[in-house]
Amino acid sequence: MKIKERRDEKKGETKIDKDERKEESNTKLRREDDQKGVDKEEKESKSVAKVKDEQKRDGKVKEEETRLKKGKEIEQKKEEKREDEKKIIEEKDVVRMDADNTKLRREEKERVDEEKESKRMTKGKEEEKREEKIGEDTRRLKKERDEQKREEKIEEETRSLKKERDEQKREEKIEEDSSWLRKDRQDEEKADKEEKRLKKEDEKAGEETTRLKKEKDEKVKESEADDAKEETSRKKKGKEEVNKSEEKLTEVKLDKEERQASLSRKDKTRKESDSKIEKEKREENESETTFKKEDTELDKSKRKVAEIKDNKFDEENGRKIEKLLSGKGDEQIEDKLKNIDLSAEKRIIDEKIDEEESRKEEVERKDKRKEDEEKKMIKKEEEGKGEEKRDEKRKEDEKEEKIEKRKNDERKMEKERNGKDKEEKEDRKMNEETKEEKIEENMKRKKLEEKEIEEMGKKRRKENEEDKNVEKKNTEETLKQNPA
């Protein structure tokens, strides 16, 4: 009951302190609100709410105080009732002793003796219980010590087992590393063999490229020889055509001579045919305009022909035509000859232009074929180089992956070791903390038991003193009543 009263008093004091702190904080807040210039309505509302809260708190505090006071009053009333009961009992005893002092004395003595014996027995039992508790505590402490020793032994055994496991793992890791190194060496040897094989293949590819280049050069030479043959054949054809044109010119000359003879015969009848001649002149003028247009076209064609290699052929044709045109005769015959020569010349020029264009197209086709073949060769070489680069990259990537795997494995092993060390440290700390907590709990338990034992002893002493005082009073009163 006293402990509860103290706790209630402490709680009431803490609540009062809290209320005081809250009041101080409220006063500070009010001051800050006044300094900040808060509106009066808000201040009043806050103050009203705070007053209500304070009233509620004060009401709660008062209720608690009243409750505590009621509890104290009830306890006081109980104590008074006990005292009254004791007094009543004493009065009854006095009355009984008055009735029969001797019997009462005997009964009181017997009762006192019995109480003493009972107290002595209870004391002996309590002492036995204390001894039993002490023995149990000692046994429990011994068990705890034995358990601690067992735990320490178990921890030592676990540590030794962990060390053995770590050593086994290290040995396994060393074996794995050695196997990895062997594999790496084997892979390197394989890579060297593959490099040698690739070098041989590169040499073969180079030989093939040289062979293809030679074949290409031979094909180019053959194509050039074919071109030269074609050009010679073309020149021969041109000469044949020139011969044909010369034959035609000879025929034209014969016709011209015959016509001149006929014209000489017709000189007599010229005067009669003046009108006809005038008409022919008009026609000639018209033909001259057409011939001029054709001359411009011929000039253009001659310019194109000038770009061609066969300029000599054109010059010879021009000389022959000039010789033919330099002959004597009528204007009509000369015009007709011109028309014949120009048509033949045009035909020859057009044929030569067509041949030249076809030759150029063939040359362009051959050049395109050569370029395509060269591009194909270049692509093949680039593809071979690309495959080599890919193989090198693949090997480098495999080596990097192996290195990364080793690093990751080492990191994992280090993490596992660090984790194990941390777990061991944490287990040690937990064991030490649990040991300390157990020791503290045992100490607290012992202190509480000692306090309880002391309080029980004090209560018993008080009760014994009260009983002794009551006995003394009773004996004194009995002696006073009957001194005889």
TrEMBL record:
Which superkingdom is the protein from? Eukaryota
Instruction: Please list the residue ranges that the record marks as compositionally biased, kind Basic and acidic residues.
Output: 1-173, 179-223, 230-484
Its lineage reads:
Eukaryota, Metazoa, Ecdysozoa, Nematoda, Chromadorea
What are the boundaries of the region Disordered?
1-484
This chain belongs to which protein, by name? Uncharacterized protein
